[in-house]
Write a structure and sequence with these properties.
This protein is of the alpha+beta class. About 20% of the residues lie in helices and about 50% in strands. The chain has a 15-stranded antiparallel β-sheet that branches. This is DUF2993 domain-containing protein.
Length: about 240
C-alpha cells in the first residue's frame, strides 16, 4: 500500500482480545489503525464498483461512489455515497449513509455498533409513484409536467391534483384542485389529509421527504444497530 504498514500487522493484537488486554495495549490508537485500514481497504477495492449486500433479507445492489471514516470524539463516523440503488426491485437514484457513534468491539467475531444511521437520498418521482401504484390502492397516480401529482380514483369519476410531504413519520397531502364528474370541487370542500405512516423496519424514522420538481428528496433515521464480522477475513479480502 506504500504507507509503511500492513493490514495484518496493525490488527494482530486487536483480533485477540485476551492478548490485547493482557498486554495493556487497548488504547484509542488501536481502533484508529483498524478503522483506517478498513476505510482505505474498502475504498480501494469497492469505490466505483457495483456492490451487493442483504438488508432485512432483501438484496440491495448499488454502485459505491465514495467511502470514508473519521474520528468523532471517542467514536467514529463513516460516510458512504451510493448511486443506482436497486433495493429488492425498488430503485433509488442516490443515497448518502452516515453512521454516527461507530464502535468496534474486539473479539471473535468482531462486533460493530452504531449509535444512529442517517440516510439522505433522492428518488425519481415517477419511480416512487410506480411503486405506490403497484400496491393496488383506490387511486392511480402520475406526475404532471409541473411535478405535481395527478390522482384519479379507480372507481369514481373523481380526479385531483395534489402535492405531498413527510415530516416526522406523518404524511401531509395538499389538494391543489379537484374535479368530480368533470365539475370543479370548491376549495372549501377540499380536505388537507394528515396521515400517520406505518412503522418502518428496525424502528427507523421518516424524518422528512419533500418534492423538488420531478425528484423526491428524503431523510431517514435508523437508531442503534449492531452487527458482527470476521475482521481477519475481511482485512484479508480488502488487503
Amino acid at each position: 500500500m506504500g504507507t509503511g504498514w500492513s493490514l495484518s500487522s496493525i490488527t494482530t493484537s486487536w483480533v485477540d482480545p485476551v492478548a490485547t488486554l493482557g498486554a495493556g495495549t487497548m488504547t484509542a490508537l488501536v481502533p484508529d489503525s483498524v478503522m483506517t485500514a478498513l476505510s482505505l481497504g474498502i475504498a480501494r477495492r469497492y469505490v466505483g464498483r457495483e456492490v451487493t449486500v442483504t438488508l432485512q433479507g432483501v438484496p440491495v445492489t448499488a454502485r459505491l461512489g465514495s467511502f470514508r471514516v473519521r474520528r468523532q470524539g471517542a467514536h467514529f463516523e463513516s460516510r458512504a455515497r451510493l448511486t443506482g440503488i436497486d433495493w429488492g426491485g425498488h430503485t433509488l437514484e442516490e443515497v448518502t449513509a452516515v453512521a454516527n457513534g461507530v464502535r468496534l468491539v474486539p473479539g471473535a467475531p468482531t462486533r460493530v455498533r452504531t449509535a444512529r444511521i442517517d440516510l439522505e437520498g433522492r428518488i425519481a418521482l415517477s419511480a416512487l409513484l410506480a411503486q405506490v401504484n403497484s400496491r393496488g390502492l383506490d387511486w392511480t397516480l402520475r406526475a404532471e409536467e409541473s411535478g405535481l401529482i395527478r390522482a384519479e380514483h379507480r372507481h369514481r369519476r373523481l380526479t385531483a391534483v395534489v402535492d405531498a410531504s413527510v415530516a416526522d413519520d406523518v404524511l401531509r397531502i395538499e389538494v391543489i384542485r379537484a374535479r368530480w364528474r368533470g365539475l370543479p370541487v370548491p376549495g372549501r370542500y377540499l380536505p388537507a389529509p394528515v396521515i400517520p405512516l406505518p412503522p418502518l423496519p428496525n424502528d427507523a424514522r421518516n424524518v422528512r421527504a419533500t418534492r423538488d420538481g420531478h425528484v423526491v428528496r428524503f431523510t431517514l433515521e435508523i437508531p442503534t444497530l449492531s452487527s458482527s464480522f470476521d475482521l481477519t477475513q475481511l482485512l484479508r479480502l480488502i488487503g
